[in-house]
Amino acid sequence: MQGQNEVAIRRLPTMFDLMTDLQAKPAAPATPASAAEAYELPVSVEGRSVFLDVDGTLLDIAPRPQDVRVPEELPDDLARLSIHLDGALALVSGRSVALLKTLFPSLRGSLIGLHGAEIARPDGTLAEAPRSPELQRAVEAMRRAAAEWPGVEIEDKGAAFAAHYRLAPGFAEAVEAEMEKLASGLGDGVIIQRGKCVIEIRPTGHDKGSALLALMSRPPFAGRLPIAIGDDLTDEAMFRVVNDLGGLSVRVGTSGGSAASAHVASPDDVRSWIRSLVR
Ligand SMILES: [Mg+2]
Q1: pLDDT digits (tens, 9 = 90+) for 76-121
Q2: What protein residues have CB closer than 5 angstroms to ion ligand 1?
Q3: Full strand arrangement of the beta sheet holding 118-120
C-alpha cells in the first residue's frame, strides 16, 4: 500500500503532459496507415515508465511459440530505451522469466513472467512461483492428451503450462475441455488464462496488473507515469491498473472490448515507436 501511495504522491507528469506530447507529434510518418496509429503513442517518454508485452506486441506472433523471431535491431533499441528511462522498462509476458532471458539476453530491465507470477528485477532478485507435483502430473496428462491432436503444442513454463492450437484450430474445443478438466482437478491454486489460440493453466493470485503495481512501488519505476502496451486478454489487467494510475494504456491490434485508452495496429508500430525514441 505504501508503494501505491508513493506512486500517487511522487507522480510528476500528468495527463496534461501526455496530451501536450500527443499534440506535439510532428508531421505524419511516410505510410498513411501508420501515421494515425503512431499518433496514439507519445513522442517523449520523459518521466515515464514503460511496460511491454512480448508476443504480439514487441514480436510478431509465430505459428508455434518456439518459432518466434526477435528482429535483429530490437535488443539494441530496447537497451537504449532502458537507459533512456533510467531502467524503468519492463517486459510483461506470459512466458517464463527464464525464457524471456534467452530471448533478450542483453536487456537490462525488469522482467515479469507467467502473467505476473514471476518478477525479476535488474538487481538479480527473482520472485518465482513454485511448481507443485500436482502441476507436474497435470502437464504430463496434457502431453498425453495432446499426442492425439496433431499440431497442438504444450508449452511447459515451470509454474504454468499452456496448450497452443494455432496450427490445429479444429482441436480448440477438445483442448479447452481437457485443460478445464485438469484445472478443476488442481483446485484453487490455479486459474485458466485464455489468449489468442492458447489456453493456459497458471497460478492464481497474480496478474499483469498486480505485477506492474509491485514494480511501480519501487525505484526506478516509482514516481513515473506508466505506459503499458499489450495485445491480448491477459494485458487487460495491466491496462486497468495503468488507467487508474493516470497512465497510458495501448492495445495492439483490434481495439474493441479493451480497457486500453489508445490503439496501434501491429508490433511493427510498437517497434517503430521505440526506434523513434532512441535513435
Ligand atoms: Mg501478447
Answers
A1: 999 999 999 999 999 999 999 999 999 999 888 899 999 999 999 9
A2: 53, 55-56, 231-232
A3: 126-127, 118-120, 110-113, 89-92, 48-52, 225-230, 248-252, 262-264
